[in-house]
Structure formats: C-alpha cells, structure tokens
Design a protein that fits this description.
This protein is an alpha/beta fold. The chain is built from nine helices and six strands. The protein has a six-stranded parallel sheet with strand order 5-4-3-2-1-6. Helix 3 runs parallel beside helix 9, helix 5 crosses helix 6 and helix 6 packs across helix 7. The N and C termini lie far apart (114 Å).
C-alpha cells in the first residue's frame, strides 16, 4: 500500500513539473512573437497597409489637376500666392511642357507682374542703355491701367507675354472656359494699347501649371513659359543677392525670372546695373521670339 502511494505521489510530481515547463515555454514563445494589435496602435503598418508620406506625388484627375491637396501656389515652384518663383526646381511632370529654356545658347531675361509706373520705366531705361531686349509678362489689369507702358515696352523692341488678368495662382484649377475668358481678357487689354503686337507666350502665375491651363493657352496660340533661374527678387533680398544669384546660376539657354512690379522692386532695378555688363560679356541676351514654333 505504501509502495503504491509513493509511486502515485511521484507520478503527480512529475506531471506537475512537466506542466510547469510547458507553461514557461509557451510564455517565452509568446514574448518572441510581435503583437499585431500593438503595431497598429503605435502607427506602424503591417503587410497590406501602404505607407503614406506627406511628400508623395499627388494623384491627378483625368484633366491633370492635382486632387486631394491645397491648390493655391502648390504646383511647380510657388510658395506664396501672388508671387512667381520659390527657389524650388520644378520637375517636367508638373510643368506640362512649359518651356524652361530658350532652345539655344542665348539668355532670356523676363520681367513679371507689370507694368508698374515706378519700376517699369527704370527697367526699360537700363535695358535701353545696354541695348538688351527682354520679355515682359504683363498682368491684364495693369496693362489696362497703364497702356502707355505697354506701348513703351513694344516700342523698345521687347516681347510681350500674357500673365493672366489678376495674377490668379489658382487659375489653372478652374474650368477651361474660365481660364480661356481670363487669358482672352488679358490679351484684349494688351491689344487695346498695341493692336498689332504679337502675344505668343503665356506664364502661369506662381508657376502653378496644370494640364488645362497649358492646353487653353496653346489653343489661344500661346506657348507656356516657365523659367530656369530664380533669384527670388520678389522677396526683396537686396540688389547684391539678386545679382549674385543670377550670375551664379545662369548657363546657356537660361530663362531668368525677375519682377518689375508687385512690390518694392528697387533691388531688382539696381541689380540690373550689376548683372547686364557681366552677362553681356559672357552671353548673348535676347527677347524671346514672337514666333516660338
């Protein structure tokens, strides 16, 4: 009897020990397996969840317009509504074919947002002094208010470029009919001052290009014009910085973005006197042709 009891007691002890070991192994194994629920709670994605980054290329609608993101000033190098240029380099994908160079070894100086009664005459005088032709991207309402300056630009042999009626950075996100009405109104204001002047270039405010605005401008006989050198003169950094940036960044075929209106542009005017002698010694400067095709 005693022997049987001892054997039974030993069996119970062995069973308990084995059970304890199995339990410890289970706990250890669980600690080594990632907790999927906890991964979701901390924001780490599991297989089947795609990464979402703020700088991913936005999806576009069938018309090419960005969807699901703010539209004002968010395309191709615009950081502030009402200004052109941001120091960022636009990619071919968001330029929709807009020109960034002259197509030859010559340089093109372009002036945006005018005409302005204070700064445009100064720019014209300096260009005349150095016998340089440039391209003026004019805003429709300014052309309407200052037809004499439009006439002066053309009389000096410079090229005109449509820059929209009211410098609307979001124009490219509107309907084709709205875009067409804006561009036609601007052309009409320009031609009211200079009836026979060709207008074969269009620059989208802010460089905020979309497929619709490129398409409409081309339908109206205008070639979309971007830039390749941006000294950010709209931030009024001073003549020295504007000049240094332009001289450092230009290369054959460059299109230089500057402004003769839209704010205090005295720095741009003063920078021109430093820029033109050096550029003239290194390159041939041209007004963009009136027959870009």
């Amino acid at each position: 009897m005693t022997r049987v009891s001892s054997t039974a007691r030993a069996a119970v002890i062995v069973t308990a020990v084995v059970a304890a070991l199995l339990g410890s192994a289970y706990v250890l194994g669980r600690s080594l397996v990632p907790d999927q629920t906890q991964r979701h709670a901390t924001g780490v994605t599991t297989e089947g969840d795609g990464p979402h980054y703020a700088d991913q290329t936005p999806e576009r609608s069938s018309t090419g317009t960005p969807t699901g993101i703010p539209t004002a000033g968010q395309s191709a190098g615009a950081t502030e509504a009402g200004q052109d240029g941001s120091g960022q380099n636009a990619s071919d994908d968001n330029l929709f074919g807009a020109h960034t160079d002259t197509g030859n070894a010559r340089l093109a100086l372009t002036f945006d947002d005018g005409p302005d009664p204070r700064y445009t005459p100064q720019v014209l005088a300096i260009l005349r002094e150095y016998d340089v032709k440039a391209t003026f991207c004019v805003v429709g309402e300014n052309a309407q208010d200052h037809p004499d300056l439009i006439q002066a630009i053309v009389a000096d042999g410079h090229t005109l470029c449509n820059h929209s009626w009211h410098h609307d950075v979001t124009l490219g996100n509107k309907s084709a009919n709205q875009i067409r009405a804006d561009l036609v109104r601007t052309n009409e204001a320009i031609r009211a001052a200079v009836p026979d002047a060709p207008i074969v270039w269009y620059r989208q405010p802010g460089g905020a290009w979309t497929y619709p605005v490129v398409s409409v401008s081309q339908q109206l006989g205008m070639t979309p014009l971007h830039w390749s050198v941006d000294p950010s003169d709209w931030q009024a950094p001073g003549a020295s910085k504007i000049a240094a940036t332009v001289l450092a960044q230009v290369e054959p075929g460059a299109v230089v973005l500057m402004h003769d209106a839209g704010g205090d542009r005295q720095g741009t005017v003063d920078a021109l006197r430093r820029i033109l002698p050096q550029l003239g010694a290194r390159y041939e400067l041209e007004a963009l042709p009136t027959d870009p095709t």
